[in-house]
Structure formats: C-alpha cells, structure tokens
C-alpha cells in the first residue's frame, strides 16, 4: 500500500524521543526535556497583536502564492540592512516554515542520482529530504576537534562529478557551531572551483549568535549569490515555531521553480502568520535580544556543567540553543542493572528512562559519539537536568 518513496525515509528521531518523553510524563514520571528544537519563550506581544489585528480586520483569504508583497519587501530590506545582501522581492518565497523551503528548494533543483553533500552531524531532515527528491545524500563526517565544522579539504574530497549541492547550516543544529567569515571564505574558495554546485545555506538560527555577528556564506563570498539559496524563518529567533512561517531567498530561476512547486503543493503560508511576520521584520528587536541574552547565560552554564563531568568533552558553541558534547567515553559501559550501553541511542534511552532527562542521541544526526542537549529550558530545569545527567553518567561502569 505504501510507496517506495515513503518507505525510503525515516521518521524524525527528534520527534520520536520527544514523544516518548511526553508519554512517560503523562504516566506520571518526572521528566525534564532537553530534546525539543524550539525556544521556551512566547512569541513577542507586538507580533501577536499584529496577528489579532489581521483577524479582526478580516485579512482571512488566500494570499499570493509566494507571500504578501509587503512582507517580501520587508525581508529584502532586512537582508540588505542586516546582512548586506541585495535581493528583489521576486527572489523571495515565503513558506510554511524553513523546513518546507528547504524541502521545496531540494525538489526544485535535485534530479534522481544527484549527490548532495551534508556535513555530519546534520539536522535530521536534510538526508530524508534529499531522498524524497530521489537524490543521494552524501554524508561528510566532520571532527569534534574542529567544532564539527566542515573543512575545505573535507569538502574538496567529497565532491564528485555527480555532486549537485552542498547544505550548510550556520549556526548549526545540532552542534550550535557557527562558521567564521574566514572559514566560509575558505570553503567558498573550493566551491568556486565547482561552478555548477548549488549551496543551500540554512540560517534559521541567525539571531541566536553569541560571539560575533552572524555570517552567511554570501558575506564571505558574494560571488556565489547566483547559486546560493538562503533559507531562513521566524520560528527560532522570534519564538514563532507554531506560526509556521519561513522563506527562502535565491536566484530567480530557483525561486520561480520553488514557487511553481509550492503553488501545487501548499500555496502561501497563513495570511495571519504573514501579518505577524511583517510585524516581526519591521518592529522592535528588543525581545529577540532578550532571548539571545537568556540563551547565552544558559549556554555558559550548561557548557561549564558538562565539562565538570569526568569523561564528557564539550566545546562552547557560538550560536543556536544546543550543545553537542562528546560522550564516547561512556559507550561500551554497563548500567547499574547490568544492561550494556553501547550506542548514543542506548545512552539517551538510559538517561530518559532511568534519570528522567530527554536528550537526542547523536546517532540521529549522523554522529554516534555525541548527544544533543537543547538549552531552551528554564535555568532551574537545566540545573536539575545536569544533576541527573551527572548522576546517570557516573553510575555507568
Ligand atoms: C536547522 C534547521 N533548519 C530548519 C528548521 C525548520 O524550521 P521551521 O520551523 O521554520 O520549519 C529547523 C527546525 O528545527 C532547524 O533546526
């Protein structure tokens, strides 16, 4: 009954562990979830008010397939003022979230058999989206020593005659690592030698950066603009996950192809969310700055707490709201009941079932040596979670 296409992809591991944590909590267990990929803040009031206004004013209908012109113009202004990138509104396609934008950008450009380079650890959906387009995800392993960032040599070695695209994610989910301008420049030097290669640059965590300003590959290498698709959205920076609003900015032929696919699959995102997005783009950035400051404080806390656990190695990530410690020292050990803990998945299940903390195993992201902890949680919860993790890990022998 089920198509081969559907059968080739796996359900999201992140959603699986979150569902299991919810089920245990429903049964009465005390569970702290550090597994979710969403801010624990509410959407800022001025954004909610714009949506309420849209509803009361009767802005209820379908909008243009690519989104309302004033929001696409506002996104162009944002790209110019904040990112120093020049786009026209007809290069912007609004969508029901960055997830949809990436999926449709892949469908719009990847032919069966095309290879798409995905540095690991990767966001869980990338390989599955490539498979849905009958492309071949080529996983490029990166190293903890390099904060899990792709190096020019790794990129060069992975490119073949069949390589059609590279997916870059900065700040990264799941590691929080951010490429510096110079690192992006070095990658761009390799990309320049391969003029057919498309770059998908997922910048959804752009507003959650702590060390230096956000860098897009296009800031480092503006000459790549005619083959780079920037993907962004409102979910993370503005705490708007449930509003389902994202966008891409790309070369006109790709934007047109994505718009064509979108017109047949989903049409434009919700009219009300678009008005909310307009308020987000044009209104005060104070709430975003406050959220960033809170995330930074939590990052500092969680990195220090993790480093204090013997055997755990953790770099301090420059962005997003995740840490991705190396826990390989614990794999191959045994829990107090005599059960072996061989993989990061088994370790995550042990922490969830025996110590009430939900984290996502690195296996889900293509890096078996790590686990992902989201610190989109209150400081109290983080402190309790870290105590539980320390107890859990130190009980393994
Ligand atoms: C790296 C990355 N890209 C894209 C998305 C999708 O975001 P959206 O809510 O806009 O679909 C996520 C959400 O988890 C993400 O972590």
Overview of this protein structure:
The protein is an alpha/beta fold. The chain folds into two domains: about 5-40 and about 285-395, Aspartate Aminotransferase, domain 1 (Alpha-Beta Complex); about 60-280, Type I PLP-dependent aspartate aminotransferase-like (Major domain) (Aspartate Aminotransferase, domain 2), CATH 3.40.640. The chain has helices spanning about 5-10, 15-25, 45-55, 70-85, 100-110, 125-130, 150-160, 180-190, 215-220, 250-265, 270-280, 285-305, 345-355, 380-395, and strands spanning about 30-35, 90-95, 115-120, 135-140, 165-170, 200, 230-235, 245-250, 320-325, 335, 340, 355-360, 360, 370-375. The strands form four sheets. Strands 2-8-7-6-5-3-4 form a seven-stranded mixed sheet, sandwiched between helices. Strands 9-14-13 form a three-stranded antiparallel sheet. Strands 1-12 form a two-stranded parallel ribbon. Helix 5 packs parallel to helix 6 and helix 13 crosses helix 14. About 50% of the residues are buried. The site of pyridoxal-5'-phosphate has 13 residues, from helix 5.
């Amino acid at each position: 009954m089920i198509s081969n296409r559907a059968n080739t992809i796996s359900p999201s591991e992140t959603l699986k562990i979150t569902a299991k944590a919810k089920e245990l909590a429903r049964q009465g267990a005390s569970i702290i979830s550090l597994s979710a990929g969403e801010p624990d803040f509410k959407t800022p009031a001025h954004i909610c008010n714009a949506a309420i206004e849209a509803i009361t004013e009767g802005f209820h209908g379908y909008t243009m397939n690519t989104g309302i012109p004033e929001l696409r113009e506002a996104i162009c202004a944002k790209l110019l003022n904040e990112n120093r990138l020049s786009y026209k509104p007809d290069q912007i396609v609004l969508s029901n979230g960055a997830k949809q934008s990436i999926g449709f950008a892949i469908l719009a450009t990847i032919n069966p058999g095309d290879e798409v380079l995905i540095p690991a650890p990767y966001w869980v959906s990338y390989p599955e989206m490539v498979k849905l387009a009958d492309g071949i995800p080529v996983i490029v392993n990166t190293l903890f020593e390099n904060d899990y960032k792709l190096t020019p040599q790794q990129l060069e070695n992975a490119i073949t005659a069949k390589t059609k695209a590279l997916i870059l994610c900065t700040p990264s989910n799941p590691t929080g690592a951010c490429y510096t301008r110079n690192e992006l420049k070095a990658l761009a030097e390799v990309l320049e030698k391969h003029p057919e290669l498309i770059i998908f640059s997922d910048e959804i965590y752009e507003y959650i950066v702590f060390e230096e300003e956000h860098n897009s590959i296009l800031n480092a290498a503006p000459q790549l603009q005619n083959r780079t698709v920037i993907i962004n959205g409102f979910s993370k920076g503005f705490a708007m996950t449930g509003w389902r609003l994202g966008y891409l900015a790309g070369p006109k032929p790709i934007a047109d192809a994505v718009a064509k696919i979108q017109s047949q699959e989903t049409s434009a995102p919700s009219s009300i969310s678009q008005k909310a997005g307009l308020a987000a783009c044009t209104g005060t950035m104070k709430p975003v700055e406050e959220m960033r400051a809170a995330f930074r404080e939590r990052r500092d806390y969680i990195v220090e707490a993790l480093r204090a656990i013997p055997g755990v190695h953790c770099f301090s990530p420059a962005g997003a709201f995740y840490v991705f410690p190396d826990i390989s020292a614990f794999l191959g050990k045994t829990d107090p009941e005599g059960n072996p803990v061989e993989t990061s998945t088994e370790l995550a299940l042990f922490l969830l079932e025996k110590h009430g903390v939900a984290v996502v195993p690195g296996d889900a992201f293509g890096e078996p040596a790590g686990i992902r902890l989201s610190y989109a949680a209150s400081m109290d919860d983080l402190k309790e979670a870290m105590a539980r993790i320390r107890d859990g890990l130190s009980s393994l022998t």
